[in-house]
Amino acid sequence: WGVDPGSPRNHPALALYNSQRGDMRYIPSLKRIMADQEVPEIIRASALSQYGRLGSPDVAQSTALLLGSADSLLRLSAVRALAALPPQQRFLMLRPLIGDSVLAVRLAVADQLADLPFNELRPQDIATLEPLFREYEQVQSQHLDMPSVQLQLANYWRRRGDFIKADRALREALNLNDQLEAAYINLADLLRLLSREEEAKSLLEAGIKKSPSPGTLKHALGLLEIRQGNTQQGMLLLGEAAASESGATRHRYVYAVALHDTGA
Q1: For 24, how many CA atoms within 13 A lie in the half-sphere containing its CB?
Q2: How far, in Å, CA of 50 to CA of 47, rounded?
Q3: What is the phi/psi pair of residue 178, to 5°?
Q4: Which of 17, 85, 135, 196 has the highest CB neighbour count under 10 A?
């Protein structure tokens, strides 16, 4: 309030807003914000988070220096920005932060390294990682009454290859909040991975009945129906999901591709 932002064309909010909408044209703007030490760290960290989500091809190079920042918020965002990199490359970049002085940074590192193939690591590397993972699990275990934590744990266990624990965490998340859309989507995806597609279908159908705005669940069920050969039913669901979408464009884009592919 009472602050003149100057030209809106150069205001960081413009780049952050449009990058959240998936507009790749704002990648150069995000890079400028990240590199500008006159910009407050919280805005630089936000730009860095969006930069990582857009899947920028030079994310490793652009993020490397910020991993060593004195500001923990920048380090945290830099860690999370590396999610799209191959596991071994992530490990090489994040190894110096395994013992970071800030708990939030260490937890983010643990989450990013959960999918490392232990059979390809040296014994000394495994010895370094095991305490990090124990700390992550211990901290999360203090908040098991929160559906979001169960969701995080499920993703962690899945990336570590423990599908039983991932399944258990997702079901507990739904027990705590039976309208948690992400839990339905992730559990259905896990069941499909385990060739339990009928269970996945029933789960998504149950979620649609409980959700006040089931567009994303209908989208997931539509894709599952098409994979099973039920093209007509799948297209109907994809169309309903696309019609319910307002701000984003993902469901409409997938539906348009499906219409093209089916000759509709």
Answers
A1: 4
A2: 5
A3: -80, 10
A4: 85
Of 200, 150, 156, nearest to 180 (Cα)? Answer: 150
Residue 26: Cβ-neighbour burial (10 angstroms; 0-12, 13-18, 19+): buried
Rounded Cα distance between 47 and 43, Å, is: 6
199-235 b/e (C-beta count within 10 Å ≥ 16 → b): ebbebbeebbeebeebbbbbbbbbbbbbeeeeeeebb
217: left (phi over 0), alpha (psi -120 to 50) or beta: alpha
For residues 264 and 258, give the distance between their C-alpha atoms in angstroms, rounded to a whole number.
Answer: 8
Q: Which helix (H) or strand (E) holds 194?
A: none
pLDDT for position 5: 59
Q: What residues contact residue 82 under an 8 Å CB cut-off, 6+ apart?
A: 52, 59, 60, 63, 89, 90, 93, 94, 112
Instruction: Read off the pLDDT of residues 78-118 as tens digits, 9 standing for 90 and up.
Output: 999 999 899 999 999 999 999 999 999 999 999 999 999 98
Give burial (CB, 10 Å; 0-12/13-18/19+) of 158.
buried
